[in-house]
Amino acid sequence: MNQHSRRQVFKATGGVAATVAVAGGLSACASDSSKTEDAEPETVAKDKVPEGSGVVAGSYVVVQPTKGEFKAYTAVCPHQGCLVRTITEEEIVCPCHSSGFSTQDGAKLYGPANDGLKKAKVADNGDSLQVGPLEG
Fold it and tell me: What is the percent of the chain where pLDDT is above 70?
């Protein structure tokens, strides 16, 4: 009969637990193209988009770089699919791996992302904006 020491059993089960934890963590960062490609349009009230900043609305980020000028991009970071969260006058930041993107055109400014954020269509409906789908 092959008996294992207590140390060997703990090492084996600890290795399995670590593998499961790492795999679970990576899947949380995995890209989900359905967030980007199949996102439904969103309606955003203009007064909810701060001048010189922006908001995340569903799968889109809507910015107002200057008064009355609205732009939109996918909120899904092209690096590994996390949603961007922080929006300042100059940049849109992904919290997962610190990629930064321009509020002016969605271009990558820094970080591990290889590409910028994809542009989304913006239609002005008076007091609100219809945002999405992504531009070709």
Answer: 72
